[in-house]
Design brief:
314 residues; mainly alpha; two-stranded antiparallel sheet; globular
Length: 314
């Protein structure tokens, strides 16, 4: 490896995807279709909520923020991956790599923070229905959203800021896209502070999310079961309220933890690590608008009306 490479105007070489020339075009087409589908589903969800006054409710506004977050994450990954695949050029400038890493980590942390806010909203709606309008007023909702994005930008800005423009001894990353663990492996000097902060942030985020999710779901389940309705209705309501939310969260938890921890074990295959990390960037933005949008009757009906209206006017 070269040593003491200037970080200014430096080109980094990303790990190639390892796709054979015969498969590049089919994979590229599949990737573009996936990206277009992600944009279509999330923008449709976003426009439906924005344009329909009756959907300006706390849960739907939080869904709008999730759609924005998902578009950010997908747009940080797909254009770079697709361009590199088609051109067979895996070079990226140092600054552009950090921008991509910032957006990717912003998306990852934002996903968990928004899920926490959504779990809190559902907890108040089901367990404290009489206090819902007071606790989830417009002002309180705005405070929640500002807090989520402020925490997201602050912790990720500090995470990437600790390593930005430090002296590097290599220009080849270990992943096909830029992220903080890959960038840290390029640095020559002491990165203990970066590791301490990164590990503390990861532990705090996942422990806090897990605690809040378990607490809210248990309370929701208890409330549903203890209502005066039939037992089957209560269980059905609890499953419908928590089931999809919990499945999405558990998938995110497993995939993100594996992607983070795998960088600490050199024996883990780079292809496996890259694939798992890519899943975290692809499946949630694709599935979230379908799970939370289509499963919500109000959004599904208003989205259909909006879509049919636009078609009839064109």
């Amino acid at each position: 490896m070269d040593s003491n490479i200037s970080t200014y105007s430096t080109l980094l070489t990303l790990e190639p995807l390892g796709i054979s020339p015969l498969h590049i075009l089919p994979v590229f087409m599949f990737g573009m279709l996936t990206y277009c589908a992600i944009l279509f589903f999330n923008i449709t969800l976003l426009l439906t909520i924005v344009l329909k006054q009756k959907l300006h409710k706390p849960m739907h506004i939080l869904l709008l923020n999730m759609a924005i977050n998902d578009i950010t994450g997908a747009s940080a990954l797909f254009p770079q991956i697709m361009t590199s695949m088609l051109s067979q050029n895996t070079s990226v400038t140092y600054s552009a790599c950090y921008v991509q890493a910032f957006l990717i980590h912003l998306y990852g942390t934002g996903t968990f923070l928004i899920l926490i806010a959504m779990a809190y909203d559902r907890y108040i709606a089901i367990c404290c229905p009489l206090k819902y309008h007071a606790l989830m007023s417009t002002n309180n909702l705005l405070k929640i959203i500002i807090t989520v994005w402020t925490i997201d930008f602050t912790v990720i800005g500090l995470l990437l800021g600790l390593s930005y423009r430090q002296e590097i001894c290599s220009t080849r990353t270990v992943d096909p896209f830029c992220n903080n663990p890959s960038l840290l492996k390029l640095i020559c000097g002491d990165i203990r502070m970066n590791n301490y902060y990164g590990l503390s942030l990861t532990a705090l985020l996942h422990i806090l999310t897990l605690f809040i999710m378990l607490f809210t779901y248990i309370q929701i389940l208890i409330t549903c079961v203890s209502t005066g309705k039939r037992q089957s209705d209560a269980k059905s309501k609890a499953i419908q309220t928590c089931g999809t939310h919990l499945v999405v969260y558990l998938c995110l938890e497993f995939i993100s933890l594996f992607a983070i921890i795998s960088h600490r074990f050199p024996n883990v295959s780079q292809s496996i690590r890259g694939t798992i990390a890519a899943y975290f960037m692809i499946f949630p933005p694709f599935l979230n608008p379908l799970i939370y949008g289509l499963k919500t009757k109000e959004i599904r009906q208003n989205g259909t009306v909006l879509f049919c209206t636009k078609i009839s006017q064109s």
